[in-house]
Design a protein that fits this description.
By secondary structure, the chain is of the alpha/beta class. The chain folds into two domains: 82 residues, no CATH class; 149 residues, TIM Barrel (Alpha-Beta Barrel). Helix content is 37%, strand content 13%. α1 links the parallel β1 and β2. The radius of gyration is 18 Å and the shape is globular.
Length: 235
C-alpha cells in the first residue's frame, strides 16, 4: 500500500475490462454489436474515472471473437480502447497434445507464429493500435508439475514468442510487448499438482498448480526472459 488512490497510482498501467471476455457463442442476435457497444461504453466510463491510465479489453483476440477477424476489429475499434491484446495457448487450444520438442511442437509453434502475426497485421494496418501478447505459456516437458522437471519445450516456445515481439518492435509493428504466464516465484507445487487454494500460485484455481508456473529455480527459462528484455531495452 502506498497511500494513493488507484487512479493516481503510476504503478497501475492499465485497467482491463475482464479476463478473456467474449461476445457469446454466435452473432444471431447481433451479439457482436451489443458487445462492442458495452466495450465502448465501459472503456469510456473507466477513462472518466482514471484519465491518466490505459484501458484494454483483455480479449484472447480473434480466438475469443467468434474466431472472426471482422468481429475482433469491431470489438476493438472504439477510441476508448487504448491497445489490443492477444492470448496464445498451444495446449489449452488443442494445438499441442504433449509439451516436448519434435514435429508436433514445430507444427504448433508455426501455427502460433502465424496466429500472432495475424493480430500484428490487424493491429498495425486496420486498428492502428499497439498490440500486447498478453498471455502465453506452456507446461513443463510431458506436463510434469514438479519444479525439477525440464522446461525444454517451454523455453523454446518462449524464445520464439519473444523473438516475434522483438522483430515487430524493431520494424515499428504494433506488437510491442509480451507477458508470459505465469510467475510462480518461490511457490512450490504439491506432488502431482494440486487444485487446493492453499497452494495457489500463478495458475488459476481450476487448473493444477504448477501447470504453467515459472519458478525462481527455472534458470534456463529466466535466461530466455532476461535476454528478451535486454533485446527490447536495446531498441
Amino acid at each position: 500500500m502506498n497511500g494513493r488512490v488507484y487512479r493516481e497510482d503510476p504503478t497501475i498501467m492499465t485497467w482491463e475490462l475482464a479476463n478473456e471476455p467474449r461476445p457469446g457463442t454466435d452473432d444471431a442476435a447481433g451479439q457482436v454489436s451489443l458487445f462492442a457497444a458495452w466495450v465502448d461504453r465501459t472503456s469510456r466510463f473507466i477513462h472518466e474515472l482514471a484519465p491518466e491510465q490505459l484501458v484494454c479489453t483483455g480479449s484472447e483476440g480473434v480466438w475469443g471473437s467468434l474466431q472472426r477477424e471482422d468481429a475482433f476489429v469491431r470489438i476493438h475499434e472504439s477510441p476508448a480502447v487504448d491497445y489490443v491484446t492477444v492470448h496464445m495457448w498451444l495446449k489449452n487450444w488443442g494445438w499441442l497434445e504433449t509439451p516436448q520438442l519434435g514435429e508436433a511442437f514445430e507444427r504448433a509453434a508455426e501455427r502460433a507464429r502465424d496466429h500472432v502475426a495475424m493480430h500484428t497485421r490487424i493491429a498495425t494496418n486496420t486498428l492502428r493500435k499497439p498490440l500486447v501478447l498478453e498471455e502465453f505459456g506452456l507446461p513443463r516437458d510431458h506436463e510434469r508439475y514438479e519444479p525439477a522437471a525440464p522446461t525444454t519445450a517451454r523455453d523454446e516456445y518462449f524464445r520464439r514468442m519473444f523473438d516475434q515481439v522483438a522483430v515487430s518492435a524493431r520494424e515499428y509493428g504494433s506488437l510491442q510487448g509480451a507477458n508470459f504466464w505465469a510467475w510462480g516465484g518461490e511457490g512450490r507445487t504439491a506432488a502431482g499438482g494440486s487444485y487446493s487454494a492453499e497452494t495457489l500460485m500463478g495458475d488459476p484455481f481450476c487448473e493444477p498448480q504448477g501447470l504453467n508456473s515459472v519458478f525462481n529455480s527455472d534458470r534456463s527459462t529466466l535466461r530466455v526472459i532476461a535476454n528478451a528484455n535486454a533485446r527490447l531495452s536495446a531498441l
